[in-house]
Amino acid sequence: MSLLALLFQKSKLPIIFAALLGILTGASSAALVAVMNQALTSRTVADALLLGPAFAGLAAAVLVLRIVSQMQLNSLQQMALLDLRLSLCRRILEAPLRKLEESGQHKLMAALTEDIAVINTTIAVIPSVIISLATLAGCLVYLAWLSGPLLALVLCVVAVVLASVALPNRYAYSQFFRRRESHDALYSHFQTLIDGSKELQLHQARSEDFFNKELQPTAEEVSRISRVTNNLFIIAGGWGGFMVMVVIGIILFVVPRFQPVDMPTLAAYALVVLYLQQPLDGLMHQWPNLSRSHIAMKKLEKLGLSLQDPQPPSRDAVINPRFERIELADIAHSYYREHDGATFTLGPINTTVRRGELVFLVGGNGSGKTTLAKLFTGLYVPEKGELRVDGVPVEAATRRAYRQLFSAVFFDFHLFERMLGLEHPGMEDQARAYLSRLQLEKKVRVENGRLSTVALSQGQRKRLALLTSVLEDRAIYVFDEWAADQDPVFRELFYRELLPSLKQQGKLVFVISHDDRYFHLADRILKLESGQLVSDQVATPAVTPTMQVG
What is the residue-wise DSSP string for 212-272? Predict the structure, then answer.
């Protein structure tokens, strides 16, 4: 979808009103040129003076219409920019997690910054584009009224100009697309620069290699492409200006040799064509912005983040949090793993978990534990098979409601400073009690629904994430190797106090763990190997010694 079509979809009436104002501005500008020509070709000064009021009125109209139309379009621009940003953020919130993970953070950040900035720039120039087009159309109508044959000549020259710049513009468009792809790579390097700053500073050779062989060549490529494309448009603009002079020259010095035309008409044509140079230059200068915005829209669509109004998700579906069982029936999911250059397949998985159970999921690194947890929570959509709650399949219409059954702390969790979605009476008192229990009361305070800091060690941050998760009071809890960064005292607290407490409350608790010394605390142990469920057994002290995690 083009940017103009998108704006029309989202702001139909304001766009029409602003466009009409722009057209009136352009028509008034064309009429002003006509009055100027009439004054210049008047037989007497007295006749020219009679046109003064018309000139003054049209000049005032152009001033007022230009200001009003640009103010209207500026307001439209800001509203459209706000709507586009919020729509894009909403799209990211609604997008499938697997799609976001495959896109990568750097591409999403480029979309939120680079693409939205380009679209905003294009929206900003729409007023001048509309006014330039309206002025051009009005002047062409006036030229047609003066002389049809001369207008045909002018249009032929314009066609030659457009044809001559079409090929460079097509090449420039392809280069803009390359530049946008290079921007993704550059944002990736920026992310590495920030996330890997410790490792880079500790290894001078690695730091120099990264800067000289990764970051600098990509930045230079972006700069080179920008320079080449901008030069192409500069040349095209200069060529267009030159052709305006060519048209004037043909009108003044060639046409009279082959066709008798009175001098006032020639002068009028020369004046109008000269006046048209400004709107034509404006259109030529705005063409790069229009090209970049088209590429930005295509890039967003490629990421699955089209800015078209989506179908509103159903918020009426409800899944009973007092369910009895959840079935994973022939669940299977595949994805490409770049680190080993192969496609990993999880499943088919068949198992049933019940409310009030404490289930441990074990297995070696890369066996598919986290992938299974994301399928179980509804964050991933299975390619085959289905999830069932008390025998009822989880479908697209109910997947959002299904996800609301869960609270999870994944290995790569994000910690929010605000206690978002937890504003209920007594929440801060509960939070303070858990802070004390997790020995964080001297480091973190909860005030007005906000944590005083999240700048803590990884283990402490995980404890804060655990606090937030418990306060959510969901029916199902998922913990992805939560105890991996914890001291022994907090491991004991987690396995021997917190998990049994959640189980006693009737919660279904799903724990990914390597801590075999605590396996006997589970009701069930599921074991994965290479994406296959190889063991599903009741945990007892008698069997735990045989459970080995590869």
Answer: IIIIHHHHHHHHHHHHHHHHHHHHHHHHHHHHHHHHHHIIIIIHHHHS---HHHHHHHHHH
